[in-house]
Amino acid sequence: MSLPESKDFSYLYSDETKARKPSPLKTCIHLFSDPNIIFLGGGLPLSDYFPWEDLEVNSPMPPFKNGIGAPIEGDNAMQSHITKLQKMHEGDIPLARSLQYGLSQGQPELLNFLRDHTRMIHDMHYADWDVLATAGNTNAWESTLRVFCNRGDVILAEAHSFSSSLAAAQAQGIITFPVPIDADGIIPEKLEAILDNWTEGTPKPKLIYTIPTGQNPTGTSLADERKHEIYRIAQKHDFIIVEDEPYYFLQMEKYVRDKAVRQKQADNAKLQHDEFLASLARTFLSIDTEGRVIRLDSFSKVLAPGTRLGWITASKKLLKPYLSLHEMTIQAPSGFSQSLISGLLNRWGQKGYLDWLLGLRHEYTLKRDNAIDALYDFVPQTKTFTINPPIAGMFFTVNIDAAAHPQFKTVYNSDPAAVEQHLYEEVVKSGVLVVPGAWFITEGDTTPTQPASSKENNAPNEIFFRGTYAAVSPEKLREGLKRLGEMLQKEFSA
Amino acid sequence: MSLPESKDFSYLYSDETKARKPSPLKTCIHLFSDPNIIFLGGGLPLSDYFPWEDLEVNSPMPPFKNGIGAPIEGDNAMQSHITKLQKMHEGDIPLARSLQYGLSQGQPELLNFLRDHTRMIHDMHYADWDVLATAGNTNAWESTLRVFCNRGDVILAEAHSFSSSLAAAQAQGIITFPVPIDADGIIPEKLEAILDNWTEGTPKPKLIYTIPTGQNPTGTSLADERKHEIYRIAQKHDFIIVEDEPYYFLQMEKYVRDKAVRQKQADNAKLQHDEFLASLARTFLSIDTEGRVIRLDSFSKVLAPGTRLGWITASKKLLKPYLSLHEMTIQAPSGFSQSLISGLLNRWGQKGYLDWLLGLRHEYTLKRDNAIDALYDFVPQTKTFTINPPIAGMFFTVNIDAAAHPQFKTVYNSDPAAVEQHLYEEVVKSGVLVVPGAWFITEGDTTPTQPASSKENNAPNEIFFRGTYAAVSPEKLREGLKRLGEMLQKEFSA
Hints:
homodimer, alpha/beta, Aspartate Aminotransferase, domain 1, 36% helix
């Protein structure tokens, strides 16, 4: 059975996208490799003068049986040799090509790996999808705003979301509209109510921006059944879904406080590849039947942030304006990044990469468990504080009822934000840095289109702090959370 | 004598720049390296899990006495070892840092090299200048448009200019206004006349975009004395000068047809470093007393395009909005590119890098001479065709009086553009690709602000084709130009 083609959503494009003409030079660049044509067309320097002959690279070797951070020696050592002119492995991108102009979509060896990976992870329901290499999800999201949005357009986002993503939109004059969330992410009924009651005559949202897995900053994950509901609402109100998924492969088992049970789980957690794949959250991409979903993936959290390499998966139609934009911005991700990542992943193979992702899951599970244990050990066990152990990502939150602060009314004028700011200053003084929730509020009250329902807040005095268990060692993490807990204890005792 | 501070040009910023709020997360990232603070602030993955332990790199070794393309062996071989945690050379950037988040301005070891390089090449007349790493000049130029321009703003550009740069502006709704050029670049008198007669009530240009050295597509270079004049006009009419200088280090001696004289010149051309530095064109940066110049440099033409690494030199004030923008777009250039380039350049040292640039100059001089020799040998020596041997860059042009085509009136209705299109098709058929000048026209007639003077054209039927001598071997280049010459001969004989 052949799959249907994606729908045409070009009517949602920005004025900029509609006005963008491809550079005429791109119409002739394919002649560079035509043996019958002597190419005097474009300013391509000879690779003879690229001053890197080859790179010898030491990396860990699947199946990483002593863990992904184990010393690179013995049977955990893999050496790659990336050269200027030759392929030492069929998945290599010779430096003469990766360091040259051209191929803005990405180098074929890397794209082919990502296409195979996509087929393994997602359940694609339309035929004409593809991938496009990016300089990471920050770049991909900013490009998304340029591709779709004009000044004055509205986009939807989780009520607390990644501050840089929101700031990028706001600088462009795009109005960010908050959607209520709970411990399972966006609440579909509230989303639908907002859209059903949208003020007539004001622009309807062109897209929703969501971080479904291990959401930043709340650490929550969007429940699978809600994704189906949200997709239905997106069809009903005709907007694009942008799923920003840097933490997708940091999914774990649920946190269990009982260490004996946990140990049992950990033994089970040595998943086979098929069990691992089956355990992953369903993606919007896997629900999409029309090419309405744009997925942003990144190597930042699974390999390294400074690779500045990620990819977009979407319909070929929707990838076209990204390609035209990128030809005028990044041109392409770094050739070194492409050669080194393609060399690594193609040597590992899809199976070796799954081994790596399983190893990562194991490390993050230990980190998460260590963090949540410490929170339960050091944060006072009262109704004032709520701990929501995450099932994915790098972040946890400590939610606090600011009204329980002894000086809530007297010193802070019943303003939870003032308590939050005070606690932030105290926590830094105590020698640990966690980030106040106020830094992540999706501002939406600048627009007259905002119906009252989105302002609704069941816990008006709730504040929270976001922490990460990614950045430091287990010992430091525990010590940091001890300091946090002691500060909270001191502050909230009468 | 201490230098003055730069002026404040923030009144020229775009609405987007004015609205851009820094991400609050950036206010705490410096605490990551504070030993007294346990950092649970940002989602920074541990470098233990970056799957690249080290890179061993083979590169050529200064002084490149057998040429910059010589085999990397014997005393022309330099091996660098870039590791995850250690500096094997003081100029190295360990991968644990370059592959981590942070340092959007660029890694210090690389920036320090570029600052020293700047002091050597330019004559800075104000104190608070700095450099900022970019993902190449395409990225830097597009960022410049975002930093300064709103929809409907006007910018000036050479009457023929790099099509991708123009297209980037036009897609953003920015009006590109052509400035007449001749064999020495922008004509200051014409520029001044345009601005003195600017239609009242229409927005005046915020900036001029110029490629002073080895201009793309015309291959011309802007004369030094004209730069002083243009700077004066920029002060008078208060606009920014953006000098896009990817070809700056592809400067050469003037072309000499007589091979004996040329050989003598070539012997002289083995310049000492101080002679080489003295021979370089004066830059707008060296004229700038106010911080009105933004210079875009790139490693694309001197090392390799796929490094996607360049830098902006400007006042610290003007670099700030670029940094804020880049934190929401590229974040930083690839860490691999930064580590590999910093490792290479700091091992070479400033002197070794000058050796490399001298070597490059030598190669391009040979290429240019070979190209111009072939043009004189194969293009009919009549008044119909003009050859302007370039003194810099990668490009040459063949200018053609389209009215001399035997079918100019009969078949082509006296339309030079129709002749150009026909010749383009014929030249590709003949097996060589050169690019028609029409692809590079700076469109300006969409705005009512355009005074008639800029439309002035002393040679209304002149068309041209741009070729490059960069991309192919000398033999292929000569064969390609033979095909071009034969085609022109055939087309223009009655």
